[in-house]
C-alpha cells in the first residue's frame, strides 16, 4: 500500500500548527503544552507507519512514546497549577519527554529492520 498525500494530511497539519505556535506565536513548549504537542505528533505518525507497511510492533512503540509524552503533560499541568513555587516537578516532565523520545527511537529502529 502506497502512502499518498491525503493520508499524510494530519501530520502535515500538525507540523504547520507546531511551526505557527513556535515561530509566529512565540509559544515556549514547556511542561503541559510540550507533552501534548509531542504526544499528538507520535499518535499522528502511527497511521502513516501503518500505510507504509511497517510491522505492528513499531506502532506499539510509538503508542508507548505518546503515553510517556502525555504523562509528562499531566505532570506539567499539575506543576503549573498546583505547585507553583517549587521546581522539582520539572525533573519529572523532563524524564517523561526523554522517555518518550527514547521509546520513539526504539520504534524507529525496529521499523527499519521489521517490515511486513
What keyword list fits this structure?
single chain, 116 residues, mainly alpha, 4 helices, 76% helix, flat
- Please state the overall shape, judged from the principal axes of the Cα atoms: flat
Q: What is the overall number of helices?
A: 4
First-residue to last-residue Cα separation:
11 Å
Hey, roughly how much beta strand do the residues contain? under 5%
What Rg, in angstroms, do the CA atoms define? 16 Å
Mean pLDDT: 81
Folded structure, characterized:
- The protein is mostly helical and 116 residues long.
- It has one domain (9-113).
- Helix content is 76%, strand content 0%.
- The chain has four helices and no strands.
- It has helices at residues 9-24, 32-52, 56-81, 89-113.
- The longest helix has 26 residues, at 56-81.
- The protein is flat, with a radius of gyration of 16 Å.
- 26% of the residues are buried.
Amino acid at each position: 500500500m502506497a502512502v499518498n498525500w491525503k493520508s499524510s494530511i494530519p501530520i502535515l497539519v500538525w507540523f504547520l500548527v507546531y511551526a505557527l505556535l513556535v515561530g509566529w506565536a512565540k509559544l515556549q513548549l514547556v511542561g503541559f503544552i510540550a507533552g501534548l504537542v509531542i504526544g499528538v505528533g507520535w499518535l499522528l505518525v502511527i497511521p502513516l507507519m501503518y500505510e507504509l507497511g511497517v510491522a505492528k510492533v513499531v506502532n506499539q512503540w510509538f503508542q508507548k512514546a505518546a503515553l510517556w509524552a502525555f504523562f509528562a503533560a499531566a505532570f506539567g499541568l499539575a506543576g503549573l497549577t498546583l505547585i507553583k513555587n517549587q521546581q522539582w516537578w520539572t525533573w519529572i516532565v523532563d524524564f517523561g519527554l526523554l522517555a518518550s523520545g527514547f521509546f520513539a527511537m526504539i520504534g524507529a529502529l525496529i521499523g527499519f529492520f521489521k517490515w511486513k
